[in-house]
Specification:
The chain is of the alpha+beta class. It is 34% helix and 20% strand. The two termini are 22 Å apart.
């Protein structure tokens, strides 16, 4: 993008409203065409990208976060119970720079109307989560005691997520900086996994360098999609 052609304001600075932004829908169409994807529905969007459900029940995530793509690429050949199974990671470029497609296992929310009809388990676990990750002594914490009586297996799985991630980082050098409660989901086999892992500081580790080199470059489709 040639910024010299952008209009200037009276003070000589570039008018921020004139700066073109990437068209995510156009990027999705290009990846869909180049990779032969069949998208059934959009699942949701966040700061780091959008997720779509594919016809084979996998999830396609589009993101411009290189860190997330590198982490996902590492998981392709090094699967771990803490994370979704990743089938492939692809890179494409347009005039705005690189963006990535992550094809991974579908991971639902921790709780839904089937396993938490009144929403109480979700509320309890969301309240307890900061205590689990904050290094607190929970032996006399009333909220924690209530949680352990109501859903002990779920609380133990949450505690294991945080505990095992620290061990994982010590071994691989790959870290997750945005480990918030909403980024944890439940896989089809009932295991709890970290389903989002971008915006971290992992690109200097040897594992990350190897994973970055394994991301598959995808050319843009020869004809612009309508």
């Amino acid at each position: 993008m040639d910024i010299s052609k952008l209009p200037l304001m009276a003070d000589g600075k570039i008018d921020p409203n004139s700066i073109p932004l990437p068209d995510t829908e156009e990027r999705v169409r290009m990846l869909e065409a180049s990779l032969g994807l069949q998208i059934l529905a959009e699942m949701g969007a966040g700061i780091q990208g959008r997720c779509y459900l594919l016809d084979d029940q996998k999830v396609f995530k589009i993101t411009d976060c290189e860190e997330e793509a590198v982490f996902a690429s590492h998981l392709v050949d090094n699967p771990h119970v803490l994370f979704p199974q990743v089938a492939s990671v692809h890179r494409m470029e347009d005039e705005f720079g690189a963006f990535f497609a992550i094809i991974r296992e579908e991971v639902g929310d921790l709780f839904n109307e089937m396993n938490d009809e009144d929403g109480s388990l979700h509320r309890i676990c969301r309240i307890v989560w900061p205590f689990l990750t904050g290094g607190y002594d929970l032996s006399n914490e009333p909220t924690f005691q209530i949680a352990m009586r109501k859903c002990p297996e779920d609380i133990e799985k949450l505690a294991a997520i945080y505990r095992d991630l620290k061990a994982y980082t010590d071994v691989t050098g790959l870290s997750v900086s945005d480990l918030v409660f909403s980024n944890i989901g439940r896989a089809d086999d009932d295991r709890f996994v970290i389903r989002d892992f971008g915006r971290n500081t992992i690109l200097t580790s040897e594992h990350a360098k190897k994973a970055a080199a394994s991301i598959q470059d995808v050319p843009q489709p020869s004809m612009k999609m309508c």
